[in-house]
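Before going further, learn to read the protein records used in this course. Taken together, the tokens spell out the fold as the letters spell out the chain. A record is reproduced here so that you can trace the correspondence yourselves:

***
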Amino acid sequence: MGLETLLADAGGMGRFQWVAMVIIYMGKAFCGWSVLQMTFAGIIPDFSCESETSENDRDVHHDSLPLNVTLNKCSIPGNGSVSSSGTEESCSSYNFTGSYRTVITEFNLVCDYSWVKPTVTSIQMLGLMVGSILAGQLGDSWGRWKTNLLCALTMALSNIGTAFSNCWEVFAFCRFMIGMGIGR
């Protein structure tokens, strides 16, 4: 006797099964969007180093550059002039072009901090792995319903937490907790 025959004998796919399936998979759709969030929230717009000089001084400075010198997006000339042997200082703030704000623009995650975006994604995947292990154990001891509810609540509250994070470290912690909530 095959699986199809057993399912047909049990009544097949009725209205209750369809409703239950839609409700269950609607919750899973939110999990998928939470995993993909960094793809869209981590877009790196075009940027330049923000100088401490006024806008007029910056225009004059860039117009007076020698032709063989290119400016680095991540540093500015250290002594105010550009030469082939001049020193450069790292930027402390950046000008981002575009009308949208991303995690990158909020926390200045470019140049020296460009490693943060892939690290946050890895932290989220670590949370997913830890959540999968914990959800399996909690499901055995508490039951699937309570475990699913706890994971959904963890994911929802952590998503709200990412919206209000004031530094990338808090953002990364919230992404870890989202991963744990998804790992059910």
